[in-house]
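Protein modeling request. Please complete all fields; requests missing the sequence field cannot be processed.
Requester role: graduate student
Desired output: 3D structure, token encoding
Chains: 1
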Amino acid sequence: MSHIHEKIDWTVEVFIVHKNRVLLRKHDKYNIWLSVGGHIELDEDPVEAAKREVKEEVGLDVQLIGRDKGKGDGSVADHGYLDLLPPKYLGRHPINDNHEHITLVYFATTETSEASDPSDIEDAEIFWATKEDLEKMDLSPNVKWYAQKALEELSTT
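Delivered output (157 residues):
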């Protein structure tokens, strides 16, 4: 999507765990393994952006993980105030010399590893990585760390 500001944008990343594996997506422009994610649009909040990006990029429906097991997921509204699920982590990184991203990092689970409608997803290479796979992969330190933390928190064994 287009940038909201020439200097800085807000983005989301989602580390999705299913059956003790975490989903990584090869970035089509940079050709590196990352989480699923992208820009937060002007007409959406971060929770909506996280779910939209996952649906667009890999065709999955996810449950974002956070406080009180489901509270703060946008379900509590009072007089126009919407309680949002906070991200697990918050980071800031340069994209180039003139632009940077503030990234809200979410963890999520899904009921299936198969896209709900493969014809609707972006053309992307994906990989469901185990803890052992992460150790062997050439990943940026932050991607590896978040992926490991997601597996530690959400693996069922």
